Amino acid sequence: MKVSIFTTMTNPEKRNDPWEEALDCYSNVADEIVVKGQDWPYEFSWEHIGETFHSGFIESKGDWAIKMDLDYFFHENKIEKLHEALFNNKNKPAVAFPQYQFFSYDRYQIKTLFCIALNKKEFPDIRLNGGGDLCLPTLNGKLINPWDMPIIDIPVWQYDSIFRTKEIISEDRARFARAWNRKFKTFGDRGGGEPKIAFDAWFKGIEKKYRKHTFKTEISSHPKFIKNKLSSIEKDSFGYDVFGLKDKTSFSMVDTIKGYKLKSTIKLKSI
C-alpha cells in the first residue's frame, strides 16, 4: 500500500507557515508528497481553492491520498496506527479524523470530524468541490459525510495562524474575503475586502471559538515536528497570547462538558 500526502504552499516564509516542519512530518507518514499552489495568484477566484486541492489529489500516485494543509500535523506515535487504519479500510472511499484546533500551544478544541484521507485506488472519481467552501470531498456528486465513514481516533493537530502576525493575517483575510465576495456577492461574516475590516471580522469569530478551547495540553505532548517552533514563538505572533485573549477569556463548564462529550462520542464510534 502506497500513501500520498498532497498540500498547498504559497510564499510560506512570507506567510509564516510552518512549512519545513510540516514537510518533515509528511515525509514520515507518506511515500510521496505532492505540493501545489506555488503559482497561486494574489487575487484569485474562490473556485481556485478546490481546483488546486483537487489537482493535488489527481497527481497523487498513492492508493490513499491525504489532504493536509500546511498547519496540519500527525503525531509520530500515531503513524503506524494510521497506516493500519488505511490498510483495513480498502473498501471505503475515505476515513474520518478528529481535528484538534490550536490558537496557542496550551489549549485546543475538537473543531470537527473530517475526511482528509481519500481512497484514490478504489474511488478515483472523488472530487474536492463540495461544502460551503467548495473544497470538501464528494463522490458521485454527493458530499462524503465523515460520520458515515470509518472514524479513526487519530487527531489531526491544526495550528491555525499561530505563527502569523496581525499584519499577515489582516492581508490574508482580506484577500480571501474579496475572493468570497466575487463568488457569492457578499462578504458575509468575512467583514470586507480591506485588511482592518477583514481582521476585525476574523477576530470576532476567534473570540467565540477560543472560549471552546477547553482542553489543556503541554508542549511536550505535541508532535515532535513542531515542538521547537512552538517553544520559540515570537511575541507578535497570534499564538503567543491569542492577541490578548489568553489572559481575559473565561471557559465555561457548559463548553467543557460539550467538548468531552464530543471526544467520547468519537472514541466510542471509532474503529
Structure description:
- The chain is α/β, with parallel strands linked by helices.
- The protein is built from eight helices and eleven strands.
- The chain has helices at residues 19-29, 47-59, 79-87, 166-184, 195-210, 227-231, 238-241, 253-269; strands at 3-8, 32-36, 64-67, 72-73, 94-104, 107-119, 127-130, 136-139, 142-143, 156-159, 215-216.
- The strands form two sheets. Strands 1, 2, 3, 4, 5, 6, 10 and 11 form an eight-stranded mixed β-sheet that branches. Strands 7-8-9 form a three-stranded antiparallel β-sheet.
- Helix 1 (19-29) links the parallel strand 1 and strand 2 (32-36).
- Helix 4 crosses helix 5 (195-210).
- The chain is globular, with a radius of gyration of 18 Å.
- The two termini are 20 Å apart.
- The mean pLDDT is 97.
Quick check: average pLDDT?
97
Number of helices: 8
Our estimate of the beta-strand percent is 15-25%
The number of distinct β-strands equals 11
> What Rg, in angstroms, do the CA atoms define?
18 Å
Q: How would you classify the quaternary structure?
A: single chain
End-to-end separation in angstroms reads 20 Å
* Shape designation: globular
Main β sheet profile: 8 strands, mixed
